[in-house]
Design brief:
The complex is a heterotrimer of chains A (504), B (334) and C (149). Chain A is mainly alpha-helical. Chain A has one domain. Chain A is 72% helix and 1% strand. Chain A has helices at 3-14, 17-35, 41-48, 57-82, 91-102, 106-140, 144-158, 166-181, 206-222, 238-241, 245-267, 273-287, 300-315, 317-323, 329-340, 349-352, 354-382, 390-409, 413-430, 436-458, 465-468, 470-499, and strands spanning 183-184, 191-192. In chain A, a hairpin with a 6-residue loop joins β1 and β2 (191-192). In chain A, α1 (3-14) packs across α17 (354-382), α5 runs antiparallel to α6 and α8 crosses α20 (436-458). Chain A is globular. By secondary structure, chain B is of the alpha/beta class. Chain B folds into two domains: 40-133 and 261-329, D-Maltodextrin-Binding Protein, domain 2 (3-Layer(aba) Sandwich), CATH 3.40.190.150; 135-252, 3-Layer(aba) Sandwich (D-Maltodextrin-Binding Protein, domain 2), CATH 3.40.190.10. In chain B, α3 (52-68) links the parallel β1 and β2 (71-76). The N and C termini of chain B lie far apart (62 Å). The N and C termini of chain C lie far apart (58 Å). Chain C contains five helices and no strands. The chains are: A mainly alpha (504), B alpha/beta (334), C mainly alpha (149). Chains A and C meet through α2, α8, α9, α18 and α19 of A and α1, α2, α3, α4 and α5 of C.
């Protein structure tokens, strides 16, 4: 069977009225869930999993997948408008999206993220269609050594995420890694920093940490600053919502770069869209002619990470479907839905279940088009959230955060975590520490430790394993070059500043 | 007062007040229906929704409802390697409204980390009925030469190449890790155990040729087995699996070797015997259901059934076996 | 303007203390292991040492420059934290609606602009919205109201 007839079969499946309905249902639900802080795809999919008992497997999967990639569209809305990530992967969208909103360019930011999300997702889908088995084979070649090298590259590249003092950024990455230490050790089962609280044995939850540091801390800081909602009335006129030619010119390359980064990261099990969006942001800031614009409303810093996390959302299906290896807890649920119907994922899935595979892939197109159709006109509605006086808004946000984190495991402990990290996040703001690197360290740190220790265990304590293996050796070489070039350019800038007195 | 007047002038107030009226009415209605109800039985599953155990138990709970004449609801309480769920059930009322699903973690936690959690499950819980058992599959990957075809040749290879054999597992306190340690101890073979966050991550490393072998859930290994990246060597249960009758057991080479992933239903310790017997009968009736067996056949799940004593004995013998292992080999577990 | 940059002195100091605590905890309670089989304490000690280094790097230069420091807004800090605490204490025994009520009422103390009728209205509308989204829409098993007695 050639690709065209496969596409035809897939389209016929995806456009069947039942599947179309469930797809629409999935993406709408995904958008809503993504927008609500604290509530993520994981919660929504686990709640809806029982539905899959009652419908066809393809239909069920189309809906669950719709929730998964729909959350990526919804997540950026809260980030941009309220400086509050709707989902962890959209935390990066806060960095430049919120400044854009403050400048009255919320409409532009939202519209451009919708476009970026669509392009990113499309790129991921094309890869999924053409190269799924091949990519899956490459994924099989990635072991702990390679992962460690890759994470190190990620951390080094991302030290530029923070603006201001590099030392403070590094300190915050390390603080994030430290928060990730909490819980049961992967190798020995020893409890670390749990202080005999059984809930701590599983570690600090990403949702609790992100909602505290970003959401609650933001609210504490802005409750008394009444200026926050006073936005120029002009900015909701239709004309102000349409991106300018300059916006497009600045955006297209970052969108493509973000999509490529996301597509790659998504195929690696265990990494996920959050890392993809951070890396995309780091890369943009590094290649930018004027990195100082970042953090102050640079559109590149919004569109690239959004393209990246949407691309990663789509390519995450590659290891799940063609290796049977779910890359995240959410993907594990989608895998469970397949298994419940007696379908075994694996390299043979594409040939044995072409209707399911191609129907699902084609439904991704349909779903993403539906998301654009839904989201673009809604931009005008969403920015009206900014019109609600903050005194009504902040208790509402707190309620959603609480319900979101509480329902992660129906345990009040999550709420306590949010309080702790809210206070910590507020103090960090007062002390002028950047917050985004904490999240990055928290996500990457435990993975780095796990992979480093495993690589050492397999190599019997030989550090050379990192250099000897071709993929990790190459990645480490790139990391070293990056470090050298950063140091060199910093030196150069320093010298130039000495020659030409800076305009103060 | 000035602020109040400002509010009155905004459209927001009118809408808020209207919504308040509707909301109050609706909530009163909703609230009363949520009162506690003795005709609801909660079945606590110590994992998140959608996992292997959860899906089996949801299917069982579905079929229990008509047999018992009570609504059986599954409640997911994941975390702390099943300790959070156990702690919750141990402190729940012993009136037949709360039951939980026990797993091998119950015995491994007690044997290796006796201080954590509420205490000895043999004292704080009453066994109700054994439900299901799944053997683990011993898999070998491309890192092992082709001559390794079964347990005996694997052990021989490991002895010929000392300090070489690595085996994956799904966590330091999981049955697959302990199965490998038990195998190493019983056969005096050097085996290095390597833990992962999940079973599938370990399978990937075996299939990729970075780690030699490991005990894994059948469902995790099957995609790579059918793709030809992995070869199954044996199953870990005492008897051969009805799903793979041609696959030998580890016990055919290492007598009495029996490590499985089992699930049984427990109740709080003081639950009246009549309640336990009623539930035991219902569970055993449900387990006869052919559609249930068929649904989980491909995962290698066997629905065992039996008396409360069977489950109690199973838990007791497992705890004793792991305590024995720990006293002899002193595993690196804090 | 202070004569020294107290903001970074305090910030660096906190980072140093955190690093010391992490390293001390690891040294005292966790096994270090060997490079081949690293114990649970290996990585934390490294993290602790790194934090101390970064903390010193942040704090020391701050002694030699002038700086400013933002004031902590104590009232919102306490009110918002207390409101989340109230939610957490109410939600399990009493259900969602009382928890929402407690949260909104306490959080209103953060800022004096909310009047009592506005608070009541907000509680009612949020309860309704949450009922529609979480109970009807998503089917969460989260009781709206519960009698603990």
């Amino acid at each position: 069977m050639d690709i065209l007839s496969n596409i035809g079969l897939g389209l016929a499946t995806a456009l069947a009225p039942v599947n179309l309905t469930y797809c629409l249902l999935g993406v709408v639900l995904g958008t809503v869930v993504g927008m609500l802080p604290g509530l993520g795809a994981l919660a929504a999919i686990s709640m809806l999993l029982p539905i899959t008992f009652h419908v066809e497997p393809t239909t069920a999967l189309i809906m669950l997948a719709g929730i998964w990639y729909g959350t990526a569209y919804g997540g950026s809305i809260a980030s941009i408008l309220l400086n509050l990530p709707g989902s962890t992967s959209s935390a990066v969208a806060c960095l430049d999206g919120y400044p854009m909103a403050q400048q009255g360019r919320a409409g532009v930011a939202l519209l451009m993220t919708t476009v970026a999300s669509f392009i990113g997702a499309s790129m991921g889908i094309v890869l999924l269609m053409l190269f799924a088995p091949l990519i899956a084979q490459i994924g099989l070649g990635f072991g702990s050594t390679e992962y460690f090298a890759l994470m190190l590259l990620g951390l080094v590249a991302a030290t530029s995420v923070s603006d201001g003092s590099a030392l403070k950024g590094l300190a915050m990455v390390t603080f994030g890694i430290a928060a990730g230490l909490v819980g049961m050790d992967v190798y020995t089962g020893a409890d670390r920093y749990t202080f005999n609280v059984p809930e701590m044995a599983d570690g600090v939850s990403l949702v609790g940490l992100a909602m505290g540091l970003f959401g609650v801390a933001e609210i504490i800081a802005s409750v008394r600053q009444t200026t926050i909602a006073e936005i120029d009335r002009e900015s909701w006129s239709l004309r102000k919502m349409i991106p300018t030619r300059d916006d497009w010119r600045r955006s297209w390359l970052p969108i493509l770069r973000g999509s490529s980064i996301g597509s790659f990261i998504g195929t690696l099990p265990g990494t996920g869209p959050a890392i993809a969006s951070f890396l995309a942001y780091a890369v943009e800031k590094r290649v930018a002619k004027d990195p100082s614009r970042f953090g102050k409303g640079a559109i590149e810093g919004v569109v690239s990470p959004e393209a990246s996390n949407n691309a990663a959302d789509q390519t995450a299906f590659i290891p799940t479907l063609s290796l049977g290896i779910p890359g995240s807890a959410t993907m594990a649920l989608i895998l469970a839905a397949l298994l419940l119907h007696g379908i075994t994922p694996g390299p043979q899935l594409m040939t044995q279940e072409p209707e399911l595979f191609w129907g699902l892939v084609m439904s991704f197109w349909v779903g993403n088009i539906l998301l654009v159709i839904l989201n673009a006109p809604m931009v005008g509605v969403w920015i009206r959230i900014l019109l609600i006086p903050y005194r009504f808004l902040y208790p509402s946000i707190l309620v959603f955060i609480c319900i979101g984190v509480y329902t992660v495991s129906y345990n009040v402990f999550e709420v306590w975590l949010v309080i702790i990290f809210g206070v910590v996040g507020y103090l960090l703001r007062i002390l002028n520490f950047p917050i985004a690197p904490v999240l990055l360290g928290f996500v990457l740190g435990p993975l780095m430790e796990e992979h480093f220790r495993r690589a050492m265990l397999i190599s019997r304590g030989d550090l050379m394993t990192f250099v000897e293996r071709p993929i990790s050796g190459t990645v480490l070489l790139i990391t070293a070059l990056l470090l050298v070039s950063t140091a060199a350019s910093a030196l150069l800038r320093h010298r130039r500043q000495r020659l030409v007195p800076a305009p103060e | 007062m000035k602020a109040y007047n400002n509010l009155r002038n905004s459209g927001v107030t009118r809408r808020v007040v209207m919504a308040a009226a509707i909301g109050a009415a609706l909530l009163l209605g909703a609230g009363t229906t949520q009162a506690q109800d003795k005709s609801i039985v909660t079945l606590v599953v110590p994992f998140g929704a959608g996992g292997g155990v959860d899906t089996v138990m949801r299917a069982v709970a579905d079929r229990l409802t008509p047999v018992l004449g009570k609504t059986v609801l599954v409640e997911n309480r994941p975390g702390g390697s099943t300790i959070l769920a156990y702690d919750h059930v141990a402190r729940s009322p012993a009136d037949g409204t709360v039951f939980m699903i026990g797993t091998p973690s119950m015995s491994t936690n007690q044997a290796f980390k006796p201080g954590t959690g509420p205490g000895d499950p043999r004292k704080l819980l009453a066994p109700v009925a054994p439900i299901a058992e799944q053997p683990y599959m011993l898999i070998a990957g491309p890192a092992l030469p082709a001559e390794v075809k079964d347990v005996a040749s694997l052990l021989k290879w490991a002895k010929d190449n000392p300090d070489t054999l690595d085996m994956v597992n799904s966590g330091p306190l999981t049955a697959p890790r302990l199965a490998a340690e038990l195998l190493a101890f019983r056969t005096e073979t050097p085996i290095v155990t390597i833990s992962y966050q999940s079973g599938t991550a370990g399978v990937l490393d075996v299939a990729g040729g970075r780690v030699h072998a490991g005990f894994t859930q059948i469902i995790e290994a099957m995609p790579q087995v059918t793709a030809g990246n992995l070869r199954p060597l044996a199953v870990s249960s005492l008897k051969r699996s009805p799903v793979f009758p041609d696959l030998p057991t580890v016990s055919e080479t290492v007598p009495d070797f029996d490590v499985t992933s089992w699930n049984g239903m427990f109740a709080p310790a003081e639950t009246p015997k009549a309640v336990i017997d009623e539930m035991n009968a219902a569970v055993n009736k449900v387990l006869q259901d052919e559609s249930l067996k068929e649904m989980f056949r491909s995962q290698g799940t066997v629905f065992v059934g039996g008396s409360p004593e069977d489950l109690g004995n199973k838990l007791d013998s497992e705890i004793k076996r792991w305590e024995d292992l720990q006293s002899k080999v002193k595993l690196e577990i804090d | 303007m202070h004569t020294k940059d107290y903001r970074d002195i305090i910030g660096g100091g906190i980072i140093i203390l955190l690093g010391l605590f992490i390293a001390a905890y690891a040294l005292n309670t966790l096994a270090i292991g060997t490079p081949r089989r690293m114990g649970p304490g290996f990585f934390p000690i490294g993290i602790g040492v790194l934090l101390v280094c970064f903390g010193i790097g942040i704090a020391v230069p701050a002694f030699f420059r002038e700086g400013t420091m933002e004031q902590i807004e104590w009232r919102p800090l306490f009110a918002i934290s207390a409101s989340l605490l109230a939610f957490g204490l109410c939600v399990t025994p009493f259900g969602l609606v009382p928890a929402i009520a407690a949260l909104v009422a306490v959080s209103a103390l953060a800022d004096s602009k909310l009047t009592i009728p506005a608070v009541l209205g907000l509680i009612a509308s949020l309860s309704l919205i949450c009922y529609v989204i979480f109970d009807l829409g998503l089917g969460l098993t989260l009781p709206m109201l519960r009698w603990p007695f």
